[in-house]
Design a protein that fits this description.
The protein is of the alpha+beta class. It folds into 2 domains: 17-105, Hypothetical protein apc22750. Chain B (Translation Initiation Factor IF3, 2-Layer Sandwich), CATH 3.30.110; 120-148, no CATH class. 18% of the residues lie in helices and 28% in strands. It has a 5-stranded mixed sheet, covered by helices on one side. The chain starts with a helix and ends in a 43-residue tail after the last strand.
């Protein structure tokens, strides 16, 4: 019996928080930036467009506030929101949940541009086939004729 209880406790503690949503407005492209979180009752000073109702639930070790809020933010990103407003959090003895409204809020900072990828090797590092000395033989970065 003790083994069964222990196995069930371990199984539920490995489950990550889950999120879900119900569209209430027009969905947008997924958002790649930071999602602002505003608790229920906070002053909403910027105009916004409602996108969806979002929720997140977790149990065991994933029932802590940071994990639940992160799942709520991820669900907001999926529907194209840059903020989640009217957030309410509820915690029980072994589970927790949060619900809020995903919105696109005008005036929030835009996401940072993606980091640039690695620069191609200089032309003098390429052999006659256009490959560098330690590169995968099937990857060709530059044609020899393009180097001057």
């Amino acid at each position: 019996m003790k083994r069964l209880v222990l196995a069930l406790a371990m199984a539920t503690s490995c489950v990550h928080p889950t999120g879900e949503h119900a569209l209430t407005g027009e969905p947008r492209q997924p958002f790649a930036g930071e999602v602002k979180v505003m608790v229920d009752g906070a002053a909403l000073e910027l105009p916004y467009e409602e996108v969806a109702i979002v929720s997140a639930t977790g149990s065991g070790l994933d029932a802590a506030l940071p994990q639940i809020i992160a799942a709520l933010q991820e669900e907001t990103r999926k529907v194209g929101g840059n903020a989640v407003i009217r957030v309410r959090y509820d915690r029980g003895s072994s589970s927790a949940s949060a619900i809020g409204v995903a919105v696109w809020m005008d005036g929030l900072p835009a996401p940072a541009p993606p980091e640039p990828g690695p620069a191609p090797p200089p032309c003098d590092a390429l052999d006659s086939s256009g490959r560098g000395p330690e590169m995968d033989p099937f990857v060709k970065l530059a044609a020899p004729g393009n180097c001057r």
